[in-house]
Amino acid sequence: MSTTTDIEQSIAQLRDEINHHSYQYYVLDAPQIPDAEYDQLMRKLEALEKEAPELITADSPTQRVGAKPQAGFDEVVHAVAMLSLDNAFSDEEMRLFDKRLRERLAVDAVTYCAEPKLDGLAVSLRYEDGRLIRAATRGDGRVGEEITQNIRTISSVPLCLIGSSWPRILEVRGEVYMPRAGFEALNRRQLEKGDKPFVNPRNAAAGSLRQLDPRVTATRPLAIYCYGVGEVEGSELPPLQSEILVRLKSWGLRVSPETQQVNGIEACLDYYHQIGARRDALPYEIDGVVFKVDAIKQQQALGAVARAPRWAIAYKFPAQEAMTRVIDIDVQVGRTGALTPVARLEPVFVGGVTVTNATLHNEDEVQRKDVRSGDMVVVRRAGDVIPEVVSVVVARRPDNAQPFVMPHECPVCGSEVRRVEGEAVSRCSGGLYCPAQRKEAVKHFASRRAMDIEGLGDKLVEQLVEMGWLHSVADLYDRDALPHHKLAGLARMGDKSATNLIAAIEKSKQTTLARFLFALGIREVGEATAQALANHFGSLPAIMKADEAALLQVPDVGPVVVANLLAFFHEPHNREVIASLQRLGVHWPDVVAAVDLPQPLAGKTFVLTGTMTTMTRDEAKKKLQALGAKVTSSVSKKTSYVVVGADPGSKRDKAEKLGVTQLDETAFNQLLSELQEGD
Ligand code: IVH
Questions:
Q1: Which CATH number fits domain 75-316: 3.90.180.10, 3.30.470.30, 3.20.20.80, 3.40.50.300?
Q2: To the nearest 10°, the Cα dihedral for 197, 203, 209, 211?
Q3: Ligand 1 close to Cβ of residue 318 (< 6 A)
Q4: Given 2.30.30.40, 3.90.1150.10, 3.40.50.10190, 1.10.1200.10, which CATH number is that of 597-678?
Q5: What does the buried/exposed string (b/e) look like for 108-131 if buried means 16 or more CB atoms within 10 Å of the residue's CB?
Q6: Which of 151, 136, 131 is nearest to 77 (CA)?
Q7: Cβ count near 360 (within 10 Å)
Q8: Which of 105, 263, 370, 647 is most buried, most CB within 10 Å of its CB?
């Protein structure tokens, strides 16, 4: 007789505790302790088992991952065949299915158990005396492959059942799948390692389960939802499918929280459409809903045909992936000038619509997927997202398939195409000149905070560009290019509107340098940056002449903005448009450039804290910067002054500690006025 030692007891206690928390976490989705604490329990158990290796059992939570690869998978003959399901693709087919069952069962309405149909792999888990002893794939339904070592690595599969009164033999069936988030993380890792990413979560799950080395499977984010039973021996299960699922859950098996008992066909259809609307928001992929007759007695009465039961059906969502041929690869120019390679496809029905184009995102993606004109490809359209090419069916590549080359010139305007190092996007540098970008550019140019041309709305801009009357924003000011009668003849225009519009255009000629700069629509040059540039340089020629170093002197202007400015002014088309605008009368007063102003605070560093009553913190910052000061956000020994408003934060305490001079609002204003008087 063996006595229970202390260590034996501690080990047993820890295992119970860990199993309990796994259940809370994986099955009930209601963790009671933080992950770190769980990890600590595991480490404790590992340490004890190291002390007493003779006490290690196969069902210890530390023993999920086997130590060595297998030579191959053994065959498993399923005690109860793993059937497949018939499919339905429309409400009408579902109504027919329900009608057939009502007639066969001679009832008015059938109660079903509705379950989301996860897109993964069917598996069978065999528990004997509550212990997981074998796991197998579905295979052909009769014979599958033994994948126990791999299944054991899935944390949401219990190695021992919890609770009590489980049947001596319980074969559970369920779907192993990879949640979307895990799939994306896995693919990022694959790309980092230089390995091929998986095409979709289903393939990733299948590939992971078929690993001969369980240590690899253990690194894959797999999960399971259980949805039924196979062989059961030793005790009776409840009489309803929905109750069986509740029972499985109580034994520690993970069951989808979306499963629901539904009464009659209309409730089935409601369920289907409701979950369909949430499909893309679910953390895993589903490809339909499985409806099962809820009463097991009725299931038995209905029986099965060939490979599928009569008592269940899979109502599928429209397929999100389909195969078709790439006719050609075009390049589309977006409103920001981004060049997107687009596959022109032989029309294919996917995700509920006919698709003829699919995005290839960017040059790197085309290279990585190696999509060529003429290839057979898998196209995917999920929800409202733009259809994309997922992968190439290389085995079906024709001899004359053409690799893709990103053009060096914009296909719309012929301007140079540039790709910033480290960025994936190639862009047309044509800016205002490029018709593809022109509509958006003109709308922006005319908008209230830019040139403020009243009456030049979006619809009108679109008409003007489509008529071919606006080659650049300069044409707006050119009465030869755009005379009164042309404007008056446009849809929803007329004599009076045309006159008003021309007056508004005239009025906009007088503007400010900051507005004009902002109106040019240079990437990442918003209102504030335009203002900062105008203040700093004072005139447009000074800005256009400035080199990288000079531009970087402007407050809040970083390397990205500088690169955009340089690229914009480097493009001859843009310089021509600017010259035309000025020639046609657009003008502004030059301002005194900050660079030319005395900088009495040059070399001084300020920190602002608390609220001021006479100006905002941002205004204070601008004033200080105009006087040459640097404004930073944290106090250090190098800080010259801390300006303290009402309710200051910890920065004041820090200033106190470091002995940095503090200025209250009055003192600050006094300093400003003294320095400004000194101009
Ligand atoms: S029941 C006799 N329930 O769909 C019942 N299957 O097309 C057979 N599946 O091989 C399966 N979710 O891989 C059932 N809640 C669910 C399911 C489900 C996904 C998969 C399973 C099966 C296939 C049948």
A1: 3.30.470.30
A2: -50
A3: no
A4: 3.40.50.10190
A5: eebbbbbbbbbbbbbbbbbbeebe
A6: 136
A7: 24
A8: 105
CA 248 to chain centre: 34
How high is the pLDDT of residue 3?
A: 56
Residue 1: the pLDDT is 42
User: What is the DSSP secondary structure assignment for residue 196, as one 8-state letter?
Assistant: P
- The pLDDT value recorded for residue 115 is 98
d(CA 638, CA 213): 58
In angstroms, what is the span from residue 220 Cα to ligand 1's centroid? 22
Ligand 1 atom at minimal distance to the Cα of residue 138: 10
Neighbours of 75 (CB within 10 A): 11
Cα of 278 from ligand 1 centre, angstroms = 20
Domain 4-63 in this protein, CATH class: mainly alpha
CB atoms within 10 A of CB 411: 14
- The tens digit of pLDDT for each residue in 557-579 reads 899 999 999 999 998 989 999 99
CATH topology of domain 321-396: OB fold (Dihydrolipoamide Acetyltransferase, E2P) (2.40.50)
Task: Decide if 644 contacts 653 (C-beta within 8 A).
Answer: no
pLDDT at 495: 94
The pLDDT tens digits of the residues spanning 471-525 come to 889 999 999 999 999 999 998 899 999 999 999 999 999 999 999 999 998 989 9
pLDDT at 580: 96
pLDDT computed for residue 121 by the predictor: 95
Return the residue matching tokens 């930073």: 632
Contact (Cβ atoms closer than 8 angstroms) between residue 13 and residue 241:
no
| Residue 225, ligand 1, Cβ within 6 A | no
DSSP state for residue 23 in the 8-state scheme: I
Q: Nearest residue CA, atom 19 of ligand 1?
A: 117
Pick the CATH number of 410-596 from 3.10.410.10, 1.10.150.20, 1.25.60.10, 3.30.70.1170: 1.10.150.20
State how far the Cα of 32 lies from the Cα of 24, in Å rounded to an integer.
7
In the chain, list all ranges with CATH 3.30.470.30.
75-316
Q: 23 with 33: CB under 8 angstroms? A: no
Residues of the chain with confidence (pLDDT) below 70: 1-4, 432, 595, 677-679
598-603 contact pairs (CB < 8 A, 24+): 598/678, 598/679, 599/627, 599/628, 600/627, 600/628, 600/675, 600/678, 601/627, 601/628, 601/629, 601/675, 602/628, 602/629, 603/628
pTM reported for the whole predicted model: 0.65
In whole angstroms, how far apart are CA 205 and each of 217, 231, 381, 388? 9, 25, 20, 21
Residues 557, 560, 561, 566, CA torsion sign: positive
Q: Given this model, what pLDDT does residue 678 score? A: 52
